[in-house]
Amino acid sequence: MTQTPQFQTGADVRRAARQGELTGQTSGLAAGFVQANLAILPRDLAEEFQQFCRLNSQACPLLDVTQPGSAAPETIAPTADLRTDLPRYRVWRDGELIDEPTDITDYWREDLVSFLIGCSFTFEAALLNAGIPVRHIEQGVNVPMYRTNIDCVPNGSFHGPLVVSMRPLKPADAIAAVQITSKYPTVHGAPIHLGLPDKIGITDILQPDYGDAVEVRDDELPVFWACGVTPQSVIMAAKPPLAITHSPGCMFLTDIRDVDLATA
Amino acid sequence: MTQTPQFQTGADVRRAARQGELTGQTSGLAAGFVQANLAILPRDLAEEFQQFCRLNSQACPLLDVTQPGSAAPETIAPTADLRTDLPRYRVWRDGELIDEPTDITDYWREDLVSFLIGCSFTFEAALLNAGIPVRHIEQGVNVPMYRTNIDCVPNGSFHGPLVVSMRPLKPADAIAAVQITSKYPTVHGAPIHLGLPDKIGITDILQPDYGDAVEVRDDELPVFWACGVTPQSVIMAAKPPLAITHSPGCMFLTDIRDVDLATA
Questions:
Q1: pLDDT truncated to tens, each residue of chain B (264 aa)?
Q2: Which keywords has UniProt assigned to this entry (chains A, B) (predicted)?
């Protein structure tokens, strides 16, 4: 979580990405600024996907949606250019990964709609600020994520299981984490489950479907939050002719601050 | 939880108690009005006890404290008379129960200070209103309560273990219950623990220290709240020359409403 002086704001990180100076992950950069998941789809699928997000807002909290062809998210970073301002992208055709460029200008089309989706980095910062330890950050690994037996509310081409992230917490910390993350509905909000992983279809907590395994100690409960991997996995399963997402960990830095997303 | 027409308000219940028409428990009477635990101590112990309550506010949330010799709780029921308006009392000398009268006029002294302490009836009503089932209410028994291995913050003569009440909940309901009860800090607030009962010194969940055992199903977690029995057990252990409490379940009905205690 070291931070070089040039990354004081979200705009600083975007500028470095645009200039090709930053091509890796963004965790901990421009601390206090909201980071977002990116998903780009052709206009003819966009409305269906937007409705899917509305129906599954805990997994797919929409921070901003662009006009077709516009690369500027007007609400959260009006001066940004989504074609250049992320460190690295993934380009998918018919559900197959075809490229991982640092710039998507060559793939841009006037019918593309960009979705900016809340990310758990915001609530993790709030947990750390409250003195609640976050195991995968302590261990320097990716958060463990699991496909559950809970189906998202389907909409047209978009359907699939809810994916959750897991953080092991002592019971009193789990209670405080519910209180804290409830204040951040646009970055997944409160946990959806805790304890009893088998009740949501997780048979082995040490075998996550995505990310890295972390230890759950005998005085801890696994606490599960709806995860931003859900919309990505749902998009891949729908096999759209073209989709563009951020590369894992290489998020979009916004101009809004974590504190702006906290409800009263 | 049936309600006769004469018990529409807290004042109705107090009048019936005063007139000797109500001598039993108050659960479900004048629904929507806050019920309170009562503890009365001589003035020379009152300050020490009040500070104990402040230091342990989750277990001992003070709704009101009277002036010495006054039997009217000015904040929560200014027209009430605490000597006559509860259905039944318990009188203790040196920690020994000596009487269970329906009126304490004969025991009254000008140096007595009354403490009105929040009660979980208020948050249970909020849980039920949110569609969260409360097992001991479903089963028509008293809530199970346990002495924990967590010590209250001691103050002078007053010290002892935190007593907790337990309600078994499905994980998603437990998360919602944290959110709901967090809004009621003056009636014990959020749970203090969930899952893993042995970590707070509870070796057999089916053997409560007070109240009745209830089933914890395999898709449920035991959820623990600080309990109003804590101040009672602490007072008894301090063996004051005189103490008067409500008789179990025979609470004081206030003029304030459950909704008035909810924070934003």
A1: 444 557 899 999 999 999 999 998 898 899 899 999 999 999 999 999 999 999 999 999 999 999 999 999 999 999 999 999 999 999 999 999 999 999 999 999 999 999 999 998 888 989 999 999 999 989 988 899 999 999 999 999 999 999 999 999 999 999 999 999 999 998 999 999 999 999 999 999 999 999 899 999 999 999 999 998 999 999 999 999 999 999 988 999 999 999 888 886
A2: Lyase
State the DSSP string of A51-71. Answer: HHHHHTTTTS-EEEEPPTT--
- Asked if the Cβ–Cβ distance from A194 to B194 is below 8 Å, we say yes
CATH of the domain at A98: 3.40.1640.10
* A89 and A40 together in one domain: yes
CA-to-CA distance for A82 and A251, rounded, in angstroms?
11
Q: State the smallest CA–CA distance between residue A164 and chain B in angstroms.
A: 14
AA identity, residue B201: G
Read off the pLDDT of residues A108-134 as tens digits, 9 standing for 90 and up.
999 999 999 999 888 898 999 999 999
Token pair belonging to B82 = 């605490």
Same structural domain for residues B110 and B158? no
- Between chains, do B195 and A194 touch, taking CB under 8 Å as contact? yes
Q: What span, in angstroms and rounded, lies between the C-alpha atoms of A169 and A94?
A: 39
Supply the range of the domain harboring residue A109: 10-120+237-261
Domain count, chain A: 2
Q: Is residue B3 one of the residues assigned to a domain?
A: no
B193–A179 CB contact, under 8 Å: no
Cα–Cα distance list, B207 to B100, B223, B245 (Å)? 27, 15, 25
- Helical ranges in chain A per DSSP H: 10-18, 43-55, 121-129, 135-138, 171-181, 229-238
Contacts of B172 in chain A (CB under 8 A): 192-193
Distance (Å) from the alpha carbon of A254 to chain B's nearest alpha carbon = 29
Chain A interface, mutation test: which of B194, B221, B225, most A Cβ atoms within 10 Å? B194
Closest chain A residue to B194, measured at CA: A171
Identity of the residue in B171, B199, B264 whose CB atom sits nearest the CB atom of A195? B171
